[in-house]
Write a structure and sequence with these properties.
Order of helices and strands: EHHEEEEEEEEH
Number of strands: 9
Shape: elongated
Strand order of the largest sheet: 5-8-9-7-6
Largest sheet: 5 strands, mixed
Number of domains: 2
Structural class: alpha+beta
Helix content: 25-40%
Number of helices: 3
């Protein structure tokens, strides 16, 4: 079926990739662990093969969950909400009505962003970064608690997208749209 563009129609969901620096760091660390494991297999007696195999299984699970899963996920911008994701271990669904402002992070001054999911103590910001470039700061109208930040309140989320200008433009376009009408609901 050919898709026909209708004037004023908006795609249901736009996807935006995040940086890959975090993945490179994690895969480098995993390579060191695999080399260490190979050293153990070669030089240790056969009596502890069970423990080496158990350690190899734990490393394999860690590589899949924390090393490979961020490659498979992206941030989503729908008609009414922003969905931030990093791997299979972080997902935040933020309705546009909860967003106070969104802007490039370099406007707020120089920022050395930590990689991964990180919430510095004493700061109400949560970092969801895969890279240290093209950062975006999202300020919330009210505090939200995430289990990834040990339940601490967050008023600001800093994340990265590869194509920041396109993301900011798409966000402004979607925020300007009227909220979607729900045919079946209490306020239909």
């Amino acid at each position: 079926m050919k898709r026909v563009a209708v004037a004023g129609a908006v795609e249901k969901r736009l996807t935006f990739r995040s940086g890959r620096t975090l993945i490179l760091y994690r895969l480098t660390a995993m390579s060191v662990l695999v080399l260490w494991l190979a050293f153990l297999v070669v030089f240790l007696p056969l009596a502890i093969d069970f423990w080496v195999l158990l350690l190899a299984g734990v490393i394999a699970v860690y590589v899949i969950i924390f090393g490979m899963s961020p490659l498979l996920t992206e941030h989503w911008l729908t008609r009414s909400r922003l969905i931030l994701r990093q791997g299979w271990y972080f997902r935040a669904v933020i309705p546009f009505s909860d967003i106070d402002s969104i802007e490039p992070a370099d406007r707020t001054g120089p920022l050395r962003a930590p990689l991964g999911i990180h919430r510095p103590l004493g700061q109400p910001a949560l970092f969801v970064t895969g890279g240290r470039t093209n950062l975006v700061t999202l300020r919330l109208r009210r505090s939200i608690r995430f289990w990834q930040s040990f339940g601490l309140a967050v008023r600001e989320i800093v994340f990265d997208v590869v194509d920041r200008p396109r993301f900011l433009q798409a966000f402004e376009e979607r925020r300007a749209l009227l909220p979607p009408i729900e045919a079946e609901g209490p306020y239909a």
